[in-house]
Write a structure and sequence with these properties.
Subcellular location: Secreted; Bacterial flagellum
Order of helices and strands: HHHEEEEEEEEEHH
Protein name: Flagellin
Structural class: mainly alpha
CATH architecture: Up-down Bundle
Shape: rod-shaped
Domain Flagellin C-terminal: 240-320
Organism: Rhizobium hainanense
Strand content: 5-15%
Main location: secreted
Radius of gyration: 40 Å
Number of helices: 5
CATH topology: f41 fragment of flagellin, N-terminal domain
Helix content: 55-70%
Length: 326
C-alpha cells in the first residue's frame, strides 16, 4: 500500500544503500592501504599475531646488523692472520736456509728482521671498530668475543638470544704488557721438541718478537741470527718457529670456521625474515584481485540502490498526482 506520509519502499531502499556504501568504503580502504586488517578493531586476533611477528622481524633486522659487524671483525682478524701465517712461513724458510754451510747468517738475519717488522705492523693494524684481536696494550684484555646470532620466543612470550662465541686469546699474537699472553712474544721452551742435534745445557727459551715499547720476556732469547749462532741454537729456533706457525695456522682455521658460521647464520636470518614477512602478508594484506572484484560488484550494487531509491521516492509523487486529479 502506498502512503504519502510514510514510504516503506523508500526506507527499505535507503537501508540497503547504506549497507552497500559501508561495505564499499571498507573495500576501498583495503585497496588504498593494502591492508585487509589495519587496526585491532578489524580483527583483534590476526592483528595481534601480525604485530608480534612484525616485532620479531624488526629484531631479526637488528641481528642481521650485528652479524654484519661481527663478520667485519672476523674478516679483519682473519686477513691479518693469513698474513701472519705467510710471514712465519717465510721466517722459517730463512732459518732453514741458514743451516746450509757457507751461508751469510748476518745477511739472512737482516731479511728475518724485515719480516719481523712486518709482523709488528700487521698485528698493530688489525683493528676494527676499536677492537684488535691480534695486538694488545691493555692490562686486562677481553678474550671472549661473541656475536648475537639469533633469538627465540618461548611459548609464554619470553625472548632468549643465542650467540656465536670465540676465544680471541688464540689469535693474540703480540702483548705489550704481558709478553707470555702473546703467541709471538712469549717464551717457548725448545727442549720440548726433538732436538737431538742440540747438546746445549743452557736455557733454551726463545721468543720471536720483542713488542715495540713493550715488556721483553725474561729468561728468553729472541730468535735472531749472528755469525756466532751455533747449529744447535739454529735448530732450536727452527723448531720454535715451526711450533708458532702451527699455532697460528690453527687459530687462523678457527677464525675461518667462525666466519663460515656467521655467513651461514646471516643467510638463515635473511630467509627467516622473508618467511615472516610473507606470513604477515597472508594474515593482514589485502587480496587485490578479490578486493577489486568486490569493489566493482559493490559499485554496481550502489548504482542499482540509487536507482531503487529514486523509484521508491517517485511513488509518492504518483500518488499525489492521482489525488489531485480527483
Amino acid at each position: 500500500m502506498s502512503n504519502v506520509t510514510t514510504n516503506p519502499s523508500t526506507s527499505a531502499a535507503l537501508t540497503v544503500l547504506r549497507g552497500i556504501n559501508k561495505d564499499l568504503n571498507v573495500v576501498q580502504q583495503q585497496v588504498s592501504s593494502g591492508y585487509r586488517i589495519q587496526t585491532a578493531s578489524d580483527d583483534p586476533t590476526y592483528w595481534s599475531m601480525a604485530t608480534t611477528m612484525r616485532s620479531d622481524q624488526s629484531s631479526l633486522s637488528t641481528i642481521t646488523d650485528a652479524l654484519g659487524l661481527g663478520a667485519s671483525k672476523v674478516d679483519t682478524a682473519s686477513t691479518a692472520m693469513d698474513t701472519v701465517v705467510g710471514l712465519l712461513t717465510q721466517i722459517q724458510s730463512k732459518l732453514v736456509s741458514a743451516k746450509e754451510s757457507g751461508t751469510d747468517k748476518t745477511a739472512i738475519n737482516s731479511d728475518i728482521q724485515q719480516l719481523k717488522n712486518q709482523l709488528q705492523s700487521v698485528t698493530q693494524s688489525a683493528s676494527f671498530s676499536g677492537e684488535n684481536w691480534l695486538y694488545n696494550t691493555e692490562q686486562q684484555p677481553s678474550t671472549q668475543q661473541s656475536v648475537i646470532s639469533n633469538f627465540t620466543r618461548g611459548t609464554s612470550g619470553q625472548i632468549s638470544f643465542t650467540t656465536i662465541s670465540y676465544d680471541s686469546s688464540q689469535t693474540l699474537m703480540v702483548d705489550t704488557v704481558k709478553p707470555e699472553r702473546g703467541l709471538l712474544t712469549k717464551n717457548v721452551d725448545a727442549s720440548t721438541f726433538d732436538t737431538s742435534s742440540s747438546g746445549s745445557s743452557t736455557a733454551r727459551n726463545y721468543y720471536l718478537l720483542s713488542a715495540t715499547g713493550g715488556t721483553t720476556p725474561t729468561d728468553g732469547t729472541e730468535i735472531a741470527l749472528s755469525s756466532s749462532t751455533t747449529d744447535a741454537e739454529l735448530t732450536d729456533m727452527i723448531n720454535v718457529t715451526n711450533s708458532l706457525l702451527k699455532s697460528a695456522t690453527s687459530a687462523d682455521s678457527t677464525l675461518g670456521l667462525m666466519k663460515s658460521n656467521i655467513d651461514a647464520q646471516s643467510d638463515y636470518i635473511s630467509k627467516l625474515s622473508d618467511a615472516i614477512k610473507s606470513s604477515v602478508g597472508d594474515l593482514v594484506d589485502t587480496n587485490m584481485e578479490e578486493a577489486s572484484a568486490r569493489q566493482s560488484a559493490l559499485q554496481t550494487a550502489q548504482q542499482m540502490g540509487v536507482q531503487a531509491l529514486s523509484i521508491a521516492n517517485s511513488m509518492a509523487s504518483k500518488v499525489l498526482i492521482i489525488l489531485q486529479a480527483k
